[in-house]
Structure formats: structure tokens, C-alpha cells
Specification:
Residues 71-81 have a biased composition (Acidic residues). Helices cover 55% and strands 2% of the residues. The chain is an all-alpha fold and 484 residues long. Among the domains are: 149-276 and 425-433; 280-407. A hairpin with a 6-residue loop joins strand 1 and strand 2 (477-480). Helix 11 (208-218) packs antiparallel against helix 12.
């Protein structure tokens, strides 16, 4: 503890004591074990080579971007093939990885602590294995972490935060324990949402049908925050696994007839993101969602529907102007986020169907001109200058169609835990997803192996005189042997 507080950067002080610390670890009291394990984790990252270095190189080599210029495609493809061959040759020449005995000593001596009764010790060993162990050996921590899910909700929360991060990088180690992450009705909302995150990360082509059936049950819950998170999870599954995209989309469309407005609103937001991937195949769904503007009152859902109609107005040429007419009537009573989307819808329809929507657009722009919110007033002035050319209009108005009707990339639905892996697992910074005071970055692996002899301890031979002690009452003779 003193080392961690006074001079945690003085790695050189650990060299001679490293093996002793590893061997004594099992006998140290529990909270001391946590401190020592975290200290040795950072030490190992500076003194040993990455045991997964070959895997990391393959991932980097296989992810090359394709070329931009079409005229040079053939030459670039040849260059890419040459680069791949060169990388393969370099990998073949690379010496096979041999784990340092001291690295193995640390892994071997910490493994029994996965059986500890203290959740902090188990979590410390789990993060050590995740950051230091070969990929083939990391799986041993999964069972220990799943065991902690039977503990108090506070412990579950911390464990699930770390498991959610682990499942992004190494999903396979938790797949055998899929059912351990099923949600109970007695779980607190935060635990439910974290388990949802883990289940979504574990979803693949093999188990997706089982997970979706489980999600269908969750949607019937009375916990509205949990239901909203479940709908978002279904959307992520549909994004990540193309085989079930249509199935998920149809299921979400059925939720649009749900009596609960919050469920409908969340479904609309997720459907909007999914439709951006293949809008031409789902014009019927866009028409169906356009009809919901009369009933849905949640601002985010209304804004999502209006954005969808404006973005794909060519798929619903008869419905879009009518939606704008209805929105113009209620413009002054709408929320700001909805007003902004009404302005965007008006601008896009003016550019694609000006004969039918010219007067409507001018009416909406006049309403926005005197709105209380300055963002809406500014947006109205900006749109008017772009789409209604005048003598004062600049050259930018010529590119109005390119600005408003440009093709937009489909959104990527990613896990909120994707960017947390740069924090050390088990730390407060990882839990908060922000660097906390006193946090120490986990060092990068060294490129070349440091000298292992720095951990050798010189043994000095010393001879002591043999002493004798005689007890008068028994006459027993005790021989005290010298020790070094």
C-alpha cells in the first residue's frame, strides 16, 4: 500500500521482490492481495511481452482499407497482395512466442485466488488475466465472475460493468454461461439494463433466436426504462446480425400498435435507424409510420418520423405533403426538436415538389421567423436563403439540393461499453467511463523483452557458529543451526 501511494512509478523497486510477492500472495490478507495484484498487473505490462502479439498483428494486417481511386485498383490490389505476402513471411520468420517463467509464475499463483470469498480479490484476478494472460487461458475467469452474480446487487453492478466490456473483445468465454445473464423480475433496473447489454454483446447467428425470444418476454415488463432498453437491444441485434434484420423490424412494427406511448416512441426511434440501412425495401413501413403522427405525442418519436419522411420523401410522394400540412397547423404548439424537423421536411419537399408545397413552406418559414427559440429563427433564415433564391443569395444556394438531399450513411448502433477498454478493468475510472483522480494508466506492452536477470536475487553464503543450549531441568540439548 505504501509503495502504491508514495512511488507507484518506481517499477525498479519491485524487481528483486517480484518472485517473493508472487509466492507469498496466497498467504496475504484479502485487501492486501487486491493491492498487490493491481501492482503486479502494471509491473507485468512493462516487463513481459504480449502473449497475444501474433493475434494482434493478424488483426492489424487484415484490416487494410480499400483504395479510393478506381483507376489504380488493379495496381493497388497487386500491392495489397504483396503486402499480405510480406506480412505472412514476416510472421513465419518471427520466433514463436515463449512465455517468460516469471510471467507464468504470476498467472499460476493468482489463479487459485479466483476461489476467494472476497469479490474484490476475484475481480482483481479477473482483470489481471484479461490484461496479461494468453487468449486461450482467459476463459478460466468466466466461471468465477458468473459466481459473483449470485451476490448482492452492488457487487453484481460492478461485475456486470466489467463483463460488458469483456464480452466486446472476447465474447466466446461467456457464451457457455448465456443463461446466467437472463433477467429476473426482482433485479433492479440498472442490473437489468447491464444484463441486456451483455446478452446483446453475446448474440450471434447461433443463439440469436433464443435471445430474441427472451427479449419478447422483457417487452411485457412494467418497468418502462427496461422496456425501452430492450427495444434498443433488439435494434442493435438487427444491425449486427443481418439474418434477423427483417424479423426484428417486423417485430418492432408490431409494437407500433402498443397501447403504451413510450413503447411506441422508442420503437419509432429504433425503426428509423434500421430503415436507413435499406429504405427502398420498406416504403410500406414509412407509410405506416407517417400515419402515426396524429397519435404519437412524444417529441423524439415525432421528430424521428418527420426526419424519416423528409429523408425518403420520394418513396412517399403523396403522403409527405399531407404530413407537412398537418404539421404546419400545429407548428406553434410543437416542441423545439419537432419544429426543427418540420422546417427540414418543408425544405426537402420544396426542393423535390415545389409546385405542391411552395405556399406551405413559406407559411412554415414565416411562423418560424417569429418563434421564441433563436435556433429555430436562425434555421428558418438559413433555409430561406438557400431554397428561395434572391438577388442577395450567394453561390451556396445553387447547391441547396446537394446540401439537403445528400445521401447519408446509415447509423452504427454500437455498445456504450466499446470505448471503455482503454481503462483498466475493475477501476473506478472504468466504472465511471471517465478518468478519476489518482488513476494510473495501464502501460503498453514492450516491443522487445526486457532483461529478466533483474529479478534474480544473489544468494550469499554465510556460516554461523553452532550454538548449544542446555536446560538443567531436563538436560535436553538443543542445537541451533545457522541460517542465512
Amino acid at each position: 500500500m505504501a509503495f502504491e501511494e508514495v512511488c507507484p512509478e518506481r517499477i525498479d523497486l519491485i524487481h528483486k521482490n517480484y518472485r517473493k510477492l508472487c509466492n507469498l500472495l496466497i498467504d496475504v490478507e484479502e485487501w492486501g492481495q487486491v493491492v498487490i495484484i493491481n501492482m503486479l498487473t502494471r509491473y507485468a505490462r512493462t516487463q513481459f511481452l504480449n502473449p497475444n502479439v501474433n493475434e494482434a498483428l493478424l488483426e492489424e494486417g487484415g484490416g487494410g482499407d480499400k483504395t479510393f481511386y478506381g483507376s489504380d485498383e488493379d495496381e493497388d490490389e497487386d500491392e495489397e497482395e504483396k503486402e499480405k505476402k510480406a506480412e505472412a513471411a514476416a510472421m513465419a520468420k518471427r520466433k514463436p512466442y515463449v512465455m517468460d517463467p516469471d510471467h507464468r509464475l504470476l498467472l499460476r499463483n493468482t489463479k487459485p485466488l479466483l476461489q476467494s470469498r472476497n469479490a474484490a480479490v476475484v475481480m482483481a484476478v479477473a482483470q489481471l488475466y484479461f490484461h496479461l494472460a494468453p487468449k486461450a487461458e482467459v476463459g478460466v475467469i468466466a466461471k468465477a465472475l458468473v459466481r459473483l452474480l449470485r451476490s448482492h446487487s452492488e457487487v453484481q453492478y460492478v461485475v456486470l460493468q466489467n463483463v460488458a466490456t469483456m464480452t466486446i473483445k472476447r465474447r466466446g468465454m461467456f457464451e457457455p454461461y448465456l443463461k446466467s445473464f437472463y433477467i429476473r423480475s426482482t433485479d433492479p433496473t440498472q442490473i437489468k439494463i447491464l444484463k441486456l447489454e451483455v446478452l446483446t454483446n453475446l448474440a450471434n447467428e447461433t443463439n440469436i433466436s433464443t435471445i430474441l425470444r427472451e427479449f419478447q418476454t422483457y417487452i411485457k415488463s412494467m418497468d418502462k426504462d427496461f422496456v425501452a432498453a430492450t427495444i434498443q437491444a433488439i435494434g442493435r441485434c438487427a444491425t449486427n446480425i443481418g439474418e434477423v434484420r427483417d424479423t426484428c423490424l417486423n417485430g418492432l412494427v408490431q409494437l407500433l400498435s402498443n397501447r403504451d406511448e413510450l413503447v411506441v416512441a422508442e420503437s419509432v426511434v429504433v425503426i428509423k435507424k434500421l430503415l436507413q440501412m435499406q429504405p427502398e425495401k420498406h416504403s410500406d413501413i414509412i407509410k405506416h409510420m407517417a400515419k402515426l403522427t396524429d397519435n404519437i405525442q412524444v417529441p423524439m418519436a415525432r421528430a424521428s418520423i418527420l426526419w424519416l419522411i423528409g429523408e425518403y420523401c420520394e418513396h412517399v410522394p403523396k403522403i409527405a405533403p399531407d404530413v407537412l400540412r398537418k404539421m404546419a397547423k400545429s407548428f406553434t404548439n410543437e416542441e423545439d426538436i419537432v419544429k426543427l424537423q418540420i422546417l427540414n421536411l418543408a425544405a426537402k419537399l420544396y426542393l423535390t415538389n415545389s409546385k405542391q408545397t411552395k405556399l406551405l413552406t413559406q407559411y412554415v418559414l414565416n411562423l418560424a421567423k417569429y418563434d421564441q427559440n433563436y435556433d429555430i429563427r436562425d434555421r428558418a433564415r438559413f433555409i430561406r436563403q438557400l431554397i428561395v433564391p434572391t438577388e442577395k443569395s450567394g453561390a451556396l444556394s445553387k447547391y441547396a439540393k446537394k446540401l439537403f438531399l445528400a445521401l447519408k450513411p446509415a447509423p452504427v448502433l454500437e455498445s456504450p461499453f466499446k470505448d471503455r477498454d482503454h481503462f483498466q478493468l475493475g477501476s473506478l475510472s472504468h466504472l465511471l467511463n471517465a478518468k478519476a483522480g489518482g488513476y494510473q494508466e495501464l502501460p503498453d506492452w514492450p516491443e522487445t523483452a526486457p532483461d529478466p536477470s533483474v529479478r534474480n536475487v544473489e544468494v550469499k553464503e554465510s556460516v554461523r557458529a553452532v550454538g548449544t543450549v542446555t536446560y538443567r531441568d531436563t538436560g535436553a540439548l538443543w542445537v541451533l543451526r545457522g541460517s542465512q
